[in-house]
Fold these 2 entries.
Entry 1:
Amino acid sequence: MTRAPLVVKIGGSLTDPSGLLDDIAALDSPLIVVHGAHRFLDDLAVRLGTPPRFVTSVAGATSRYTDDAAMDQFLMAYCGHANKRIVEQLLWRGAAPVGLAAMDGGMVRGRRRADLRVREDGRTLVLHGDHTGSIEQVDTTLLHTLLQGGFLPVLCPPALGHDGTAINVDGDRLAAEVAIAVGAERLVIASDTAGFLADAADPSSTVDRACAADLAGLAGSAQGRARVKLTAVGRALAGGVGAVGLCDGRGSHPLQAALAGAGSWFTPSAVVAV
């Protein structure tokens, strides 16, 4: 394999990614798919009688508290349901997908943060037994082996903690780290919005083009997942990815539209073309 692969993140917010999967299956170039499943995980947790618990760290970051029971549900939702449904649909479209968790083969490893200091009801608490973590290393051996064999890797969290346990890592950050590790020229993060909104309350405020120097200013207006996505964008650009798109994954041929320039595209400098 001589061409650098494209990395596409299928957001867990997408309720119908069929158009995106059509484009992925039809793409005639090396490709790695990363996907989320947070909506299904939330629904599963509620159906099992253990609604998800979200906590806010002392630094102000919000995350899912992933104890042992929540990690069992995480594995069911991400590695079981979501991953295999995507594999199923891509196979039906004629692709050759291989569904994997990021921890398979020791591909993606990181540090588990077992103890969390959080703020609840004005108090600081320490929660133990968490399986949330951060990515520190990506081994591309298995990915390159699959790509060279003509297969389409389909990855999802969790990664593998250095203590040997599964860790919940952010899907957008996973896509960024994989894109850096494989030398991707472009990373597309597809979700249920048209791109990055300068005003979260105004769907027409999509930022078309921006560079790395603009990220700090844009982060000031970002809320929730949008802020997390900007962090992933910044990490990917700093790691050598040539362009990162926050794009709409809905409708027909959304990947074609994204690769033609639709959505919000971020580059290292203002003079680099998408």
Entry 2:
Amino acid sequence: MRHIPNFLTLVNLFCGCVGLSASSVELQALLVLCGVFFDFSDGLAARLLRAQSELGKQLDSLADMLTFGALPGLILFRMMQSNADASFSWGIYAVWVYALGAAWRLARFNVEDTGKDFFVGLPSPAAALVVASLPWSLPVVFLGTIYTGLALIFMAAGLALLMVSKVRLLSLKFKNLTWTDNYPRYFLIFISLLLIVIWQIQAIPLVLLGYIGLSLVFKAQHTD
């Protein structure tokens, strides 16, 4: 039983490996979504089974760097190649700043002792979800124009800055399943599902804004 969390982490890593060789950005984006599911599952399983370990922590970060760092960076790069105006050829590699931000965020998470109820900086899976939504959420009228290049570079840089920032955001990790300890997380799940039912995958950027807003509200009500 104690190996179940690490097995789920390896499945997350497998999603990232397959994604790097996937034939389309849409398939890569779906594999990011699968990776997020298994990343959530391995942490929850480790806490419920009381099977947390230093090995699992390091393995989780390595898997996250591939699935939520390199793979979303590749999605941004391929979208830049396919959809950005030719005048943006000079900046096609700029979107890889996203992967650099993810690496910094994951390394800092491993060495800093953060609070139990908060993350410091945007978690890489949350940032990866936003990137994964782009193949469906970028307006069609923008594709192939200068606005596509600007949007992708702005998105990559903005997410990288959020990941390396010191902004305290609500931890998405469930220590248990009780309402008292997790009501902000349940509220976020409810709002997220509602938005996704209405706007499907295009709602993910709105979910991110809701996550940041809820974190700021919860932080104002609960101080260390």
